[in-house]
Amino acid sequence: MPLTAKRRSTGEVICVLDYEDPRRDLPADDLVCPHCGEPMILRAGPLRAAHFAHRRRCAYEGWYERETPEHRAFKEAVWRYLNRAPFWEEGRVELEVPVPEARRVADLLVTFPNGWRVAHECQVSRIGLGELRARSRAYLDAGVDVVWWFTRERLREARKWLPEWLLRFQGVILEAYIQLVREEPRSL
Hints:
By secondary structure, this protein is an alpha+beta fold. It has 2 domains: 56 residues, no CATH class; 113 residues, Trna Endonuclease, Chain: A, domain 1, CATH 3.40.1350. It has 6 helices and 10 strands. Strand 1 and strand 2 form a beta hairpin. The longest helix is centred in the middle third of the chain and has 16 residues. The C terminus is likely disordered.
């Protein structure tokens, strides 16, 4: 469920979270994917969280997994947190940014004025050590540092192998609770 789209008319990348009433405020025929350029539609309603969807398949589809409502909420919570947190607010915080060198779409990417880039990955689904290493290595090989955010449940599962690997890898792992970093729920 992409949260970003681009206005075809202006080239401006927009985030659905920035709009109180996206249906009213966003022109339906002016939205394209900021990555592949294909037309997008806005989906929003009383039972559906606002997001964008491709009319056709996206060329970047294989670079990320399908998103659950829980993952979307987690990603939104981290986005809100990073935009107001000391240190991170110094950079430009963007949602769903392709990192072609890593063949990944980062959940969030913070780019600092000096060019330093840090991907933030929100892990809601199960992930094994091998997959975590491979994704982290892909980002690092692309010159992008990575911060992993785990839900409480995923962190509990990962504790079996996480501490040893973390010490060797010297990465950063954060445990986050949606309730702590979320402001008011918008439309979950």
